[in-house]
Fold:
Amino acid sequence: MSKKSTALPEASITVQVPFHDVDMMEIVWHGHYLKYFEIARGALLDTFSYNYREMKESGYGWPVVDVHLRYVKPARLGQVLKVTAKLKEYDLRLKIEYRIEDAQTGERLTKGHTVMVPVDMKTGELYLGTPPILYEKLGRDS
Structure:
């Protein structure tokens, strides 16, 4: 009998800051950090085969209902960033924490989290519970 892992999944991606993401001071415009979060979130969801297409096929949408960002230090044009997304909660909602750091030095630049909730795709109503498919995808008991 094999034991299920208790560690929650995480994933990291790298992004080199492109010209179109910076302002005239060559600093990343604040709204683009959410885009970097989204790319890392997609990689995280892929780790347990429940990205947006699989969500839709399962009958649930998972809109982001809350976002929190803390800017520690600016990212700059050409800088290579490591963006890590880690699942922190999965009962009733998906809470994902993010960390953006310089890929070479490990210096933290930004951190934050998002909260997503399940919505029944047929009715458009908030699903008051955790869809069983999520437990299945995470290999966890409900």
